[in-house]
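Action item from last week, closing it out:
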Amino acid sequence: MIHKTELGKRILKSVISHDESLLLVLFDNSQEFIILKIKETRLDIWYHFDLGFIITDAQFNKNKNSILFSGLNSEIIEWDYNNQTVLNRVGSVVPNSLDSSLSGYSCVGIFEKRNLIIAANIGTNRLDFFSLDKLEAKKDINALCEIFARQICIHPGGDVFALLVTDTEDSGVIKLYDWSSDVPRLYTKYINTLFAPGSFQFNAVGNFIYITGGYPPFSYQVTEYPSLDLIHEYEDDNGADMPEPWGNVHGISLNCDIILGKNDLMYVPYFDGSIKQIEGSSGRITASFPCNTSTSVSLVNVESKSRIICSSVSGEVSLVDKLVVSEKDAGSIVLQLPLEDTVTNLMTPLADMDAVVSDFDEATAITY
């Protein structure tokens, strides 16, 4: 470890800017965020700010030097991080019909190929779409969205986006949408995990989906794309011994961002405060790197500086020597969803779709 900054609050997740000069830190059940400047050998706090609503997610917009924030009881906020001011507000704040205390947005994503912002509206149970450049609402698209949506991810081929929903402490859903033509289409198959997913991502090539989380224990599964066939499912029961509180207030699972490396290696922020190097196909821990004194939850790759930043639930943000040989130079392949298994009705409920669920009797144990 090269440098550690103590922020003193329970961290939800960390997000790195596109030029890798800034780190945005979000806190659990908090209105505040902090931006740190990433240096070669240290992390310097630039400033912190209170937006006045509970922040649930954020994304850097590289085209405008701004950050898009989602949160409870608020519109989507575009924040000018240089001038430290709100540029725009967009979206609708509508009380949820089942629970009037819930409104606002639970997560936000940027779909660059379509020049769009996608956000999950808690009140309307819909996905909202806005133009990325002008933040104008696209009111001609109606897409159903479950209330506990927590992450939007774009396939490296650029035409498919996916939505992660954590509905209970024991299960979750990933839905996929194809936008290779003028009309978006919903894939009628979806992934149904048997643990609470906290984060997911496509590998660089785009032919596998890695899903991580737990409440606890720590769990992960590897799913083939686009078939959605389950390839591997592993868990570490030692995570059940970690002290409460587990997960986070508005997410009910561990965040657990991971970094995918070459040669089937995963780098995982672990419940014992370390970063674990795991063989994805075998579930075997091949190396452990001490990092934090409390549960590590978020990991970002600073490739330009050959560093990794690992955040913990107690507020530690650690700058670590390069551990990862990134897989990003592998190049992506265009793998479209089979059109015969897609529909233009984006309001199709899960009950009318086909769930792909693990048929294993139980997950395989992660080994040390």
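Closing note: The first strand starts at residue 3 and ends at 6.
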